Amino acid sequence: MTDENVFYDDTPPPKSSNTKVVLWVFGICALCFVVCCGGAGVVAWRFGDAAKKFVADMTTTDPDEIRKQTAAMVDIDIPDEYQPMQGMNMVAVRMVMYQTPATQDGSQGMLMLMEMAMQQFGANAKQQEQELRKSMKQQSANQGYTSSKSETREIEIRGEKIPFEFVEGTNAGTPGQEKKTHMITGVFRGKRGPVMLQLMIPDEDYDEDAVMEMLQSIK
After folding, report:
1. What is the pLDDT of residues 149-180, one digit of tens each?
2. Which residues contact 15 (CB under 8 A, 6 or more apart)?
């Protein structure tokens, strides 16, 4: 018999790194539905378990397939410490995620690339990129990231100067034990459409020269 008292434990179990990543993936997927499909996407995502199952079925953890999907989106030199973790290909939306090995306290760096191959109805490419930037910031706030310092830097990609936000802040955690984290975000034109890049790095692992080298390698 199940002990009903288990369900009333006031102490929530800590979220594992993988659990946080899964939540992040589904948050980004919801973002995709909204940007691509507008109001219809909101309805489909909020009320369609079939839509969520479809997303889950389109994911892969095969490293070779994730690298293949990355190359189909953009040419970028990703440091060796970022290992392929998850990929998703829904034709109109493609997303890949890379992670660094966990430190003793469980902190990990994460690189996420998401490509939108379907243009939103009634919006041009620039408007769609702006909507992605706006939604990306909202998603970060929803995941408990609090910014304390922000700087915009321009990186030239395919002859165009692209603004990237370099942000310092903290991830949600036990009060008094929040982790200082660097977040770098930007949206640029990929091989098929707008590509959103988001990089999360624990402060103790942050190497600005390595970050700049990776961003400048984008083609």
Report:
1. 999 999 999 889 999 999 999 876 655 667 88
2. 23
DSSP string, 107-143: ---EEEEEEE-SPPTT--HHHHHHHHHHHHHHHHHHT
What is the rounded end-to-end Cα distance, in angstroms, of the chain? 59
CA torsion angle 215 204 179 103 (round to 10)? 100
Q: How far apart are CA 114 and CA 198, in angstroms?
A: 9
User: What single-letter amino acid sits at 83?
Assistant: Q
Q: Is the separation of the CB atoms in 129 and 119 below 8 Å?
A: no
pTM summary value: 0.71
Assign 199 a pLDDT band (cuts: 50, 70, 90): very high
